């Protein structure tokens, strides 16, 4: 006899005891669920890459044959890795898991506007073996990659070829004729800037030589060191704790790529500015090399410092602790 839906795929046939098999079908299914999942709590705590999530067990097993379904229905709690506080641990992207969990709750995909992590989220969906979610993300990426044509009324149509460069507007036919040449010629007032060059769209006006976008990126870091009685002989320097990145989101991602930590400002649109990014490494020279390879040059720098006596902070007498903050401004024309 086939098992009930709630008992299929559970270890040992869903944990149905011989006594339970002699009862009604409803009591057998309840016994199957109790026998297979009784060792898991109803509320589970997950540590995904350092991010903690608390959810119901029925949520993580809502998609059959997924990775989480097998973990929390086909295995025992003792077989799953845990962190120091007893939470079930998954070594994946903790920020993107929020969208995985949202999908498991109602099987719908809802992403914020200007979401830049579709390819990485698709990779997470494939890892957690959620084929429907991975398919939707792939379709969304394919649709975004297709150029969209802009009608005169402002509506979008993906079935038409892209329009010509927006800086050159189609001229209206002149009164009294003028021929096809006059109708197709660009209007000197509509398609030319005051300097005589073609008008450009905002995104094109940021393009410099070689098609690269112009702009500024500011690198900042805090450092500290302790100076004792013997001055330089007793100087103790501390390593740079964190290198911050300020500038336009698109430029920062272009230069630093995967070494850019976006966890503090994850949903920032590409054309907006941010001052909350920082780098995953702590070497200023490495950051300078990346900026130089991307065509940036240093335009300015500034530094401020403060001094405090070590005894005020629990240190040795007569020692001084210097703390500095330094910023380097890079630009690309």
Order of helices and strands: HHHEEHHEHHHEEHEEEHEEHEE
Radius of gyration: 30 Å
pLDDT below 50 for ≥5 consecutive residues: which ranges?
Answer: 1-36, 148-210
Described by the principal axes of the CA atoms, the overall outline is flat
Oligomeric state as shown:
single chain
Percent helix: 25-40%
**Head-to-tail CA distance between termini:** 74 Å
The pLDDT mean sits at 73
Largest sheet: 7 strands, antiparallel
Share of residues in strands: 15-25%
Based on DSSP secondary structure assignment, what is the total number of beta strands? 12
Structural class: alpha+beta
Number of helices: 11
Structural account:
The protein is of the alpha+beta class and 333 residues long. The protein contains 11 helices and 12 strands. Strands 6, 7, 8, 9, 10, 11 and 12 form a 7-stranded antiparallel sheet that branches. It has a 3-stranded mixed sheet with strand order 2-1-3. Helix 7 (118-127) packs antiparallel against helix 8. The radius of gyration is 30 Å and the shape is flat. It starts with 10 loop residues before the first helix and ends with a strand. Mean pLDDT is 73; it is low at 1-36 and 148-210.
Properties at a glance:
single chain, 333 residues, 11 helices, 3-stranded mixed sheet, alpha+beta
Secondary structure layout plus pairing:
Elements: H1 11-14, H2 18-21, H3 25-37, E1 43-48, E2 51-56, H4 57-60, H5 67-73, E3 88-90, H6 97-106, H7 118-127, H8 131-145, E4 149-150, E5 156-157, H9 179-184, E6 215-228, E7 231-237, E8 243-248, H10 249-256, E9 260-261, E10 273-279, H11 284-293, E11 297-309, E12 320-332
Parallel strand pairs: 1-3
Antiparallel strand pairs: 1-2, 4-5, 6-7, 6-8, 6-12, 8-10, 9-10, 11-12
Helix pairs in contact: 7-8
């Amino acid at each position: 006899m086939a098992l009930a839906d709630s008992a299929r795929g559970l270890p040992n046939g869903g944990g149905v005891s011989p006594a339970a098999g002699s009862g009604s079908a409803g009591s057998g299914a309840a016994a199957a669920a109790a026998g297979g999942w009784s060792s898991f709590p109803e509320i589970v705590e997950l540590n995904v890459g350092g991010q903690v999530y608390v959810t119901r067990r029925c949520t993580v097993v809502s998609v059959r044959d997924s990775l989480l379904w097998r973990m929390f229905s086909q295995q025992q709690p003792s077989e799953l890795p845990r962190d120091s506080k007893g939470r079930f641990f998954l070594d994946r992207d903790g920020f993107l898991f929020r969208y995985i969990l949202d999908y498991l709750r109602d099987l719908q995909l809802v992403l914020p506007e200007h979401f830049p992590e579709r390819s990485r989220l698709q990779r997470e969906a494939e890892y957690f073996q959620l084929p429907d979610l991975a398919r939707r993300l792939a379709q969304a990426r394919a649709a975004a990659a297709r150029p969209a044509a802009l009608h005169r009324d402002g509506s979008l149509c993906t079935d038409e070829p892209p329009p010509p460069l927006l800086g050159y507007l189609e001229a209206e036919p002149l009164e009294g004729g003028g021929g096809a040449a006059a109708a197709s010629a660009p209007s000197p007032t509509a398609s030319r800037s005051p300097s005589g060059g073609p008008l450009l769209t905002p995104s094109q006006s940021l393009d410099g030589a070689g098609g690269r976008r112009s702009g500024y990126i500011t690198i900042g870091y805090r450092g500290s060191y302790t100076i004792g009685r013997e001055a330089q002989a007793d100087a103790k320097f501390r390593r740079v704790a964190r290198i911050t990145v300020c500038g336009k989101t698109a430029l920062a991602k272009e230069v630093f790529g995967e070494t850019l930590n976006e966890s503090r400002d994850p949903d920032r649109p590409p054309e907006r500015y941010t001052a909350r990014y920082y780098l995953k490494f702590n070497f200023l020279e490495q950051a300078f090399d990346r900026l130089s390879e991307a065509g940036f040059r240093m335009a300015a720098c500034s530094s401020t410092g403060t001094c405090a006596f070590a005894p005020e902070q629990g240190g040795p007498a007569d020692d001084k602790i210097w703390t500095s903050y330094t910023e380097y401004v890079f630009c690309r024309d």
